Automatic annotation (TrEMBL):
It is a multi-pass membrane protein. The chain crosses the membrane at residues 6-28, 35-53, 73-97, 126-154, 174-199, 220-238. It comes from the Bacteria. Belongs to the FliR/MopE/SpaR family. Keywords: Bacterial flagellum, Cell membrane, Cell projection, Cilium, Flagellum, Membrane, Transmembrane, Transmembrane helix. This is Flagellar biosynthetic protein FliR.
């Protein structure tokens, strides 16, 4: 009877951690994936994990179970949030470009983040997801949540949730997200800034020119022409982004498991 109750509680705790991870991590948290598939995939992973986890929980009091469930929920949320924060750098770069080119007036619903995003941000986000799937990055995301059970055991508590180390690391992730996002958008933003100066000089020297009818198509044309040249650099920055994302997941596991 005790063995059955312990196994059931282990499954519940593993399921809570994996499910909370799935609702925050990139790709898997998108609304384009039905909720029933997320739950089914979480159940399959939980069954596989419980079979290799041998950590009996001796106390079955209500307070202990509530604390352990809350701990597992926070661990899964934080681990997925670290990856999601850094992955948002792609969306940030697209938003900065759309603001410069004028596409910010049009927006599309982004099922990955569940919000409205601009055209360039949506395009960059689709490219980033395709590259992540093509390079088996989603396997590394799953490996990250499975490795968390080695760093943070089920009966253990996580002091990092209360002492401020985790929040400090999340702020560092936000800083890296902004830095990578600006690096992705900097070449085109600099080019469009020079184009704005040139078009402004033309507008002053030729005042009879219809600025609002000629300049927006010219900026859009230059934007797409420059995109062809900077696209290889975008894929290199995606490589840097993914390395930073997986490294940050490893670091947050070390912080919570210390």
């Amino acid at each position: 009877m005790n063995i059955d109750a312990s196994s059931l509680l282990n499954f519940l705790l593993v399921f809570v951690r994996i499910t909370s991870f799935m609702v925050t991590v990139p790709v898997f948290s998108g609304r384009q994936i039905p909720a029933r598939f997320k739950i089914g995939f979480s159940i399959v992973l939980s069954v596989l994990c419980v079979g290799v986890i041998n950590e009996p929980i001796h106390s079955f009091s209500l307070g202990t179970m509530v604390l352990l469930i809350l701990k597992e929920f926070m661990v899964g949320i934080v681990l997925g949030m670290v990856a999601n924060i850094l992955f948002y750098a792609v969306q940030l770069a697209g938003a900065l470009l759309d603001l410069q080119i004028g596409f910010s007036m049009a927006s599309l619903f982004d099922p990955t983040f569940g919000t409205n995003s601009q055209l360039t941000g949506r395009f960059k986000n689709i490219l980033a997801i395709l590259v992540l799937l093509a390079t088996n990055g989603h396997h590394l995301l799953i490996q990250g949540i499975l490795a968390s059970f080695e760093w943070i055991s089920l009966p253990a508590y996580v002091p990092a949730l209360m002492d401020g180390r985790m929040s400090t690391f999340l702020l560092e992730c936000v800083q890296q997200m902004f830095m990578i996002g600006f690096m992705m958008a900097a070449p085109l933003i600099g080019t469009l800034f020079i184009v704005d100066i040139a078009l402004g000089i033309i507008a002053r020297t030729v005042p009879q020119m219809n600025v609002f009818a000629i300049f927006p198509p010219v900026k859009i044309l230059i934007h797409f022409l420059m995109y062809i040249f900077v696209l290889p650099g975008f894929f290199y920055l995606l490589k840097v982004l993914f390395e930073t994302m997986f490294g940050s997941m490893n670091s947050i596991l070390k912080i919570m498991g210390a």
